[in-house]
Design a protein that fits this description.
Length: about 350
């Protein structure tokens, strides 16, 4: 049997891939792991492999950064050579980063089947690079793994054959639940000198950190929130320079720190009074951890985190006001979204095994 080839490249992919890779190994499936190197900084990549106990990738392409066109072109060139050499039976891609769309395009043109984990999510905002990536990836995919019911509906309206769609739940939540006992709130508090309530901030979307006006407004709002509650802000490398030029300054009330690993970050999330983010995955993690979440975006491809979770969308200029409201009246989750139960990786592996027999 030819191998199932998993392609990952950026921080959000690793937590989604880990339970699928492990479930495949338990079933004795031949598997290959390709790391494109889209995220190449140790704090954004290596630490996740170490903390999640993942094997060394079979192939590390080391593509690195660049514009969307430069990076995607480099990814496609490197992946094509890898796919031709390894001849996988199916290529499994995760999420909506540039590595995802590059692998899907290359595999489909080589007539290799593509399986997309996290298919069907839609923000309906074509200004987001991720929306382009996820839509094109779904068009190229032969097997589509949906994490939520509305994703199945989106794929159906787009004409995808229902027989190709599998509702499996959310493998990122598998990773969260498997590591729950490692999320040490008191250790996080001690590491960052926190004695009272705090909020955690994580922001990286181009619309927030690549635009000088948006960055200035964002810094103004975060400074205002920090007057109410201490903020801890692990700053993504790609947005740090512009945020600092917009006035972001470390202080006792606004703790600006370097990126941190998965366990430390989720420990911080678990103990936070509030999370302010623009990340899709963090919206899901806060929902399961029952932590109030403000998403600094006009839309979300994960509306289930609003209808079944603790998440609320907020405009940039309304962050401080919304933070006051959420701190005063925090939402709570009665029960997690359907199939977010820690067994998604096993469901995905079962389908992959059937597809490759």
């Amino acid at each position: 049997m030819s191998a199932i080839l998993h392609v990952v490249g950026a921080r959000p992919n690793f937590m989604k891939m880990a339970p699928v890779l492990r479930a495949g190994a338990r079933r004795g499936l031949p598997q290959l792991l390709v790391h494109t190197g889209q995220h190449y900084d140790s704090a954004m990549s290596d630490v996740f492999f170490t903390e999640l106990g993942l094997p060394e990738p079979d192939v590390n392409l080391g593509v690195g950064s660049g514009t969307h066109a430069q990076q995607t072109a480099a990814l496609m060139t490197a992946l094509e050579a890898t796919f031709v050499e390894r001849e996988p039976s199916i290529v499994v891609v995760y999420g909506d980063v540039n590595s995802t769309i590059a692998a899907a395009l290359v595999a489909s043109k080589l007539h290799i089947r593509v399986a997309h984990v996290e298919a069907g999510l839609r923000s309906f905002d074509w200004t987001m690079p991720e929306e382009v990536n996820r839509r094109v990836t779904d068009l190229c995919s032969d097997v589509l793994f949906a994490t939520s019911p509305e994703a199945i509906g989106h794929l159906g309206r787009e004409g995808v054959d229902p027989a190709r769609v599998h509702f499996v739940g959310n493998p990122m939540i598998d990773t969260l639940l498997a590591n729950l006992d490692r999320f040490d709130i008191e250790r996080f508090r001690a590491s960052h000198g926190l004695t009272g309530a705090y909020a955690l901030v994580t922001l990286h979307r181009p619309s927030n950190v690549d635009d000088p006006d948006a960055a200035r407004r964002l810094v103004t709002q975060l400074t205002s929130v920090s007057e109410r509650v201490v903020l801890v802000f692990p700053v993504h490398p790609r947005g740090r320079a512009l945020l600092e030029s917009a006035g972001l300054r470390a202080s006792d009330r606004l703790r600006v720190i370097d990126p941190i690993g998965y366990v430390e970050f989720l420990s911080g999330v678990r103990g936070a009074a509030l999370v302010i983010t623009d990340s899709g995955g963090v919206q899901e993690e806060t929902t399961v951890l029952n932590v109030p979440c403000l998403t600094a975006r006009p839309n979300t491809e994960r509306p289930i985190t609003i209808t079944h979770g603790t998440n609320r969308l907020v405009a940039l200029d309304d962050i401080a006001k919304a933070a006051d409201e959420m701190l005063a009246n925090p939402p709570h989750v009665a029960e997690p979204p359907p199939l977010w139960d820690g067994r998604s990786g096993e469901r995905i592996a079962e389908v992959l095994q059937a597809e490759t027999l």
